[in-house]
Specification:
With about 260 residues, the chain is of the alpha/beta class. It has helices at about 25-35, 60-70, 85-90, 105-115, 125-130, 135-150, 170-200, 210-225, 250-255; strands spanning about 5-10, 10-15, 45-50, 55-60, 75-80, 230, 250. The chain has 2 domains: about 5-135, Conserved hypothetical protein from pyrococcus furiosus pfu- 392566-001, ParB domain, CATH 3.90.1530.10; about 170-255, no CATH class.
């Protein structure tokens, strides 16, 4: 590992194929941003130079927090490696002893990265590198073999009556459906708020902490609204990656957390 250095945020590259976690957690980005603003010191992020790009190996949440605060640079260390496989192998080993606690999905993601980078590695090597048990690696391999077997199986031919082929769904269709569902939920919350306010005018309303209930309903409406589709994910261009939670789109809050360079601005 090389010495620490300051790098411009706009020079850093967020490569989904080298992302160690299954998704970016917006709440954690905000928490980091508040801590940074208060003067908290964070360890330097880790980057690797691959094909002229400085790919983030460890530190996506810290970079997004710094971007949210409008910072121009961040402290980095450049780790050894020069290929995307090197980046994946390095990313598979991060977050074991620091940062946000890894979920089981994150651990499975680490195994996936290690396997992609070094398919000839043994169960023991991958387990030791990723900081997981050999039984987890073994179970993952078994599951992958089942998926491969299912994908390669000869399809069963079934005689069916001709039917009309449905129009293929698009990402815009998915975004429209998500927006409609969320808007419908917001209306239900608004109706619930109106019902609570009306209930406070009745005799039984004296037993209700209306202020607390209405506050909770307001928070629920805000959470729903902030989850509405805003833009196609700029990191995968709608191809559905781990960062956009395999949706192909991001909410307005998620969009604002992504550095402007990544958003094409």
């Amino acid at each position: 590992m090389k010495n620490r250095t300051e790098m411009k945020l706009e020079a850093l590259s967020m490569e989904p194929d080298a992302q160690a976690r299954t998704a970016i957690r917006a709440a954690s980005v905000e928490e980091y941003a508040e801590a940074m603003q208060s003067g908290a010191q964070f360890p330097p992020i880790e980057v690797m130079k691959v094909d002229g790009r400085m790919i983030i190996i460890d530190g996506w949440h810290r970079v997004m927090a710094a971007s949210q605060l409008g910072l121009k640079t961040i402290e980095c260390v450049v780790v050894d490696g020069s290929t995307i496989a090197d980046a994946q192998w390095s990313a598979a080993a991060v977050n074991q002893t620091h940062g946000l606690r890894r979920t089981n999905a994150d651990k499975a993601r680490a195994v996936t990265l290690a396997l992609s980078a070094c398919p000839e590695a043994t169960y023991e090597q991958i387990a030791n590198h990723c900081g997981v048990s050999q039984s987890m690696v073994s179970a993952y391999f078994a599951a992958m073999q089942e998926v491969d077997a299912a994908n390669n199986a000869e399809p069963v031919k079934v005689q069916q009556a001709p039917r009309k082929v449905a129009k293929a769904r698009t990402l815009q269709d998915d975004m429209a459906d998500a927006t409609a569902s969320i808007d419908a939920a917001v209306i239900l919350v608004a109706n619930a708020s109106a019902s609570v306010e009306a209930l406070t005018q009745s005799a039984s309303g004296s037993y209700i902490n209306a202020q607390s209930v209405l506050s909770d309903l307001s928070n629920a409406a805000s959470a729903l609204t902030s989850a509405r589709p805003h833009k196609v994910c700029p990191l995968c261009n709608g191809e559905r990656c781990e960062t956009c939670r395999m949706l192909g789109w991001v909410s307005k809050k998620q969009w604002q957390l992504i550095p402007k360079k990544m958003r094409g601005e």
